[in-house]
Every structure is written in structure tokens, then in C-alpha cells.
């Protein structure tokens, strides 16, 4: 099972908790890369909501809006990019 499949099966609360744990372990550079990837690969509607947020605000938005996080998790290209950022420790 890959990361996208695992995320798609999570409840919104579990997804929000997982996002918080992952983001707390990223370096500042990885966090900026993840922020850029999320903003560039989100839908047009989501992109408008996310474009002016910094990394911390973006994390809060996704934690407070698990349905948005779940929609992003269903983007295989985004998940592949985030996977590569997380694995570059």
C-alpha cells in the first residue's frame, strides 16, 4: 500500500493528526518545498484559498479543514512530490 492509499482511508481527524506529526518533523527547507508543492498542485478553488498563507498558516488550514486535506491527498502527483520531499532527510 502506498502513501496515497493509506491517506485516502484515514478519517479526517486521523489525517489532520498525521499532517501535524509529519510537518513537525520536516526541516524548514522541506516545509517550504511542501508548501510550494501543495499550493502549485491544488485545484483552482483551493489554490485561491491557500495562495497567501505561509507554511504555519497552511498547516493550520489543513488541520482545521480535513476535507481539503483529504482532497489534496487524492492528488497522486502531489503525494509523489510530498513523498520525495519527506524522504530527503
Give the SSE map:
Blueprint: H1 3-8, H2 12-25, H3 28-41, H4 44-50, H5 55-64, H6 66-73, H7 76-86
Feature tags:
0% strand, 89 residues, mainly alpha, 7 helices
Q: How would you sum up this structure, described in words?
A:
The chain is mostly helical and 89 residues long. Helix content is 79%, strand content 0%. The chain has helices at 3-8, 12-25, 28-41, 44-50, 55-64, 66-73, 76-86. The longest helix is centred in the first third of the chain and has 14 residues, at 12-25. The chain is globular and about 30 Å long.
Give the proportion of residues in helices. Answer: over 70%
Quick check: average pLDDT? 76
Task: Report the major sheet.
Answer: none
Residue share in β-strands: under 5%
N-to-C series of helices and strands: HHHHHHH
The secondary-structure class comes to mainly alpha
Oligomer category: single chain
Radius of gyration: 12 Å
User: How many DSSP H or I helices?
Assistant: 7
Form type: globular
Low-pLDDT residue spans: none
State the separation between the terminal residues, measured CA to CA: 22 Å
How many strand segments? Answer: 0
